[in-house]
Amino acid sequence: MMIAEKQLFDPVRALEERTSAVDILVRKAWQEHLAVSAQAGAALLAVGGYGRRQLFPYSDVDLLLLFASDKTATSLKDAISRFLQHLWDGGLRVSQSVRTPAECSELHDENIELNVSLLDQRYLAGDAAVYGALLDRLPRFVHGQRDALIRHLSRMTRQRHASFNGTFYHLEPNIKEAPGGLRDLQLISWLAQIASTTPKWLAPPAPAPDLDEARRFLFALRGYLHQHAQRDSNVLSFDAQEWVAEQTGVNEPAHLMRDYFRNARAVHRSALRVLETEEARASSLFAQFRDRRARVSNAEFTVSRERVFFRSPPQLDAEPELLLRLVQFVARHGVRLSLEAEQRIAARLPALREYFASPRPIWPAIHEALSLPHAPLALRAAHETGALTAVFPEMEEIDCLVIRDFYHRYTVDEHTLVAIQTLVQLREAKITGAAPYAGLLSEIEQPGLLIFALLFHDVGKGSPEEGHVDASLRIAEHAMERIQMPTAERETARFLIRCHLEMSSTMNGRDPFDPATAEYLAHKVGTVENLKYLTLVTYADISAVNPTAMTSWRAEQLWQLYLLTYNELTRELETERIERGDSPERSAFLEGFPTRYLRTHPAAEIERHMQLELESRVRGAAAEIEKAGGAYRLTLVTLDRPFLFASVAGAISSFGMNILKAEAFANRRGTVLDTFSFADPLRTLELNPTEVDRLKATLERAALGRADVKQLLRSRPRVPSPSRKARIEPSVYVDDQVSQSATLIQVVAEDRPGLLYDIASTISSHEASIDVVLIDTEAHKAIDVFYVTAHGRKLAVEQQRELQSALLAVLLG
Amino acid sequence: MKKIEAIIQPFKMEPVKEALKAIGIDGMTLTEVRGHGRQKGHKEVYRGQEYNVDLLPKMKIELVVSDARLEEVLRTLTTAARTGKIGDGKIFVYDVAEAIRIRNDDRGEAAL
Fold it and tell me: What is the DSSP letter of A399?
């Protein structure tokens, strides 16, 4: 009891004192039972934890009885029994082995623990000559079998880690065996000892000095656990957490666990690093791979021994944004940081924090890093080195923050990183049942933005009194302001953080087949794009609660909700129309547009559209082209007429532009608002700014039917087709039921220049009028939804059939 | 003793758990299941492709109660799980021959 109490002050010393006390008892028993009968040829050694002078209250006392020969050992059998019985009667749990020096210097494949325990051996009593014989052989053995010992230790450690799912995040961790536990501390010491041993000199145990704090913490914790359980128990159970927190005055078990995870993280990281270094030394295959990876080195970073180094470390002092480029480098190549790079970052953390605390336009650099294939690895490296909190000090709030509930397996920071990892792993299509979500991920425009939102979605959990969603929003707002994220991206990030629980709670609390549910969610998300983002955030968030949280059942449930909401969003384009605006002018412009228009366009944009409408009254048509991110956006207002949409789409394509998205709505007065988002693969508009005006003029002429679009298309610049792995089977789906007044035609086809013109002109040539259009492309796949009417009504069955065949014929080309 | 097996709508899980808790029933086994009764499945169209959703996600609750409490528990369960629409689910009641608490060999209702 006294020793355990002393652990409050100095656990290392307390363990040494206990070891010394036990040494006295053991030597006395040896003196009494074996010293006389075994004057020559027998020695007593402390091994294992006892040998290291780390004897915990209820740990086994590991002894090695070393005999010059088997014969000596056999002759002393009775005396050995009495000696051991004496110790047991004295209350010690003895774990003994009996060996000769020769046996100690053989490799025991089946009992490698014996070999390893000798690294911690310590002489206690008996014949110094026998001990000398062991000391003669041991360095030669350890040095000679170095690779085999490392291989065995590595295998045992990997197996041990695997039995804990490779993570130190456990709600009730085993602080000895789990990753980041005491066993890992020993591993680090043993590997260093083995590496330094020469044929003539056995290196002493080499505990890592940078882990001193973690060692003291874990030692004290284990002492408390033994005291609490009154036995050799190393599991930090919920009960034990409460008891230890109370004993140490921490009071809040979550704080104790936060300390535990921080220490375990440091130990785990070091253990993995040492292990990888030693494993690499033993593998020639790895060396070849290592060399290959060195080729990705650039002017700022070198890759060597499968690690990234700063080419010129002082550069980080002069140029703090080198840190962001380093994160990008890791995210691009998937190579881990070298110890030197980590140390450099650690040394510069105060200066880096100060630099990134000021507002700076670093969103593009962050966005790029988050969009790269190894973003989760880069984020983890940034998190572990403190670089993440240097750029986003907001993340400190959730560092190792424990949420004690039945479902959450991880701390909040780990949950965040696992969520991001889950999302990115969708790309590898490794997760069963995740294919639809992998499809969604490939469709969204800014995966980096999605990862940013995930990074901040739970950051408010550190401020529980405020409500975590509100707190996350408030905190993210500061960060977005500081990194100067553009308004549109900020809006999406805000939406995702604000609504990140919306789909989960809808799944758990509402009837998915009640039309009101899809309607409710459709209004919440506003657009198909937002729905895709939110579905992916929900998928990742649920998956990161614990390893079994995202069952195939739940994945199906979420997909069903996505599907119903998607269809609702598409359906309501036609059925939900704006009845009136808040002023006569707005009413005149807005009446008859889908309600979606109000949800997807901010007030300032609507004002601009109204302005364009005024201009169109003078010229007949008014177009505006602006650059938005990597694409261009065209807004065109004019009066409706047959072939209008086809003509505009054709005119855009005739300039070599690639249409990505489009919308077309008409109001009650027959004014049409078309918006097109298009890419400029040949950089025509960028390199020739006057072409923007020419395109605008052409578009206005096309809108008024004064341009021969067919002719224009014939002379359009040829854009090389990207190579593709698989062709997309075209399909035309016709639905007469979704709308009361129009027929829905949905076309899915491989995208190609002029495709939209061909589809739209085919519809128009069948005397159908296009009421509403929603165009989307995913990679090379075009997904076009048209609501069409003939003379103000749905298409007749025969007309539907003819149009369907005609469209298919166009698509099959 | 009776075993109650209830197949309910997933979104009714929380209200049902709360209602059972309110009458002192804490122990139950929950399973994520798929199935359909008269509700059948239905068809969804997503981007021109038809998706047959023939097996719908449901939750299965299993619990064993004393004969004396059966009616009360069934009443609570049906009230909490009901929306009045097709698809609300079903409840099955079975006789239970014996119950044993593995930890201490308690038998019969004492083991519940």
Answer: T
Interchain contact, B32 vs A746, CB within 8 Å: no
Q: Which residue of A has its CA nearest to B83?
A: A511
- Distance in angstroms between the alpha carbons of the first and the last residue of chain B: 9
Question: Of A75, A72, A62, A125, nearest to A103 (Cα)?
Answer: A72
The predicted complex's ipTM stands at 0.79
Considering only CB atoms, which chain A residues are within 8 Å of B43? Answer: none
Contact present, A180 and A202 (Cβ < 8 Å): no
What span, in angstroms and rounded, lies between the C-alpha atoms of A298 and A256? 43
Q: Which residue has the tokens 């519940």?
A: B112
The number of angstroms, rounded, from the C-alpha of A585 to the middle of its chain's C-alpha atoms is: 49
pLDDT, residue A182, reads: 96
Chain A, nearest residue to B52 by Cα: A560
Residue range A172-227, pLDDT digits in tens: 899 999 999 999 999 999 999 998 999 999 898 888 888 999 999 999 999 999 98
| Chain B nearest C-alpha distance from A432 (Å) | 17
Q: Kindly identify which residue of chain B lies nearest to residue A507, measuring between CA atoms.
A: B11
Q: Which of A224, A215, A155, A210 is nearest to A182 (CA)?
A: A215
Instruction: Compute the nearest-CA separation of B67 from chain A (Å).
Output: 31
Please tell me the distance from the alpha carbon of residue A768 to that of residue A763, in angstroms, as a whole number. Answer: 6
CA dist B54 and B37 (Å) reads 10
Residue B84, phi-psi category: left (phi > 0), alpha (psi -120 to 50), beta (remainder): left
- pTM of the predicted model as reported, rounded to 2 decimal places: 0.75
CA distance A598 to chain B (A): 24
The closest CB to that of A510, out of B11, B32, B57, belongs to B11
List of chain A residues whose C-beta atoms are within 8 Å of the C-beta of residue B49: 731, 748
Q: Are residues A508 and B14, on separate chains, in Cβ contact within 8 Å?
A: yes
Q: Could you tell me if A508 lies within 8 Å of chain B, comparing CB atoms?
A: yes
Specify burial of residue B35 (Cβ count, 10 A radius: 0-12, 13-18, 19+).
middle
- Would you say A596 and A787 are in contact if contact means Cβ atoms under 8 Å apart? no
Of A445, A437, A459, nearest to A543 by C-alpha is: A437
Contact indicator for A759, A711 with CB cutoff of 8 Å:
no
Cα–Cα nearest to A669, from A584, A604, A742, A599 = A584
* Cα A430 from Cα B15, distance rounded (Å): 36
Concatenated DSSP letters for A169-230?
--SS-BTTTSTTSHHHHHHHHHHHHHHH-BTTB-PPP---GGGHHHHHHHHHHHHHHHHHHT
Alpha carbon A490 to its chain's center: 21
Contact B11 A556 (CB under 8 A): no
CB contact under 8 A, A557 and B57: yes
**C-alpha distances out from residue A604 to A226, A487, A612, Å:** 67, 13, 13
Q: Cα dist. A535→A553, A557, A578 in Å?
A: 16, 11, 27
Asked if the C-beta of A732 comes within 8 angstroms of chain B's C-beta atoms, the answer is yes
Give the pLDDT mean for A92-96.
Answer: 91
Contact check, Cβ <8 Å, A508/B57: no
Å from B17 to nearest chain A CA?
13
β-bridge pairing A731-735 and A743-750 = antiparallel
The amino acid at residue A269 is R
Q: Which of B64, B72, B57, B77 is nearest to B110 (CA)?
A: B64
pLDDT band at B41 (very low <50, low <70, confident <90, very high): low
Q: What is the distance in angstroms between the Cα of B98 and the nearest Cα belonging to chain A?
A: 30
CA dihedral A248, A249, A254, A258 (to 10 degrees): -60
Does B11 sit within 8 Å of A560, measured CB to CB?
no
**Best to test chain A binding among B7, B8, B11 (most A CBs inside 10 Å):** B11
Candidates B10, B42, B87; nearest CB to A557: B10
CB atoms within 10 A of CB A807: 24
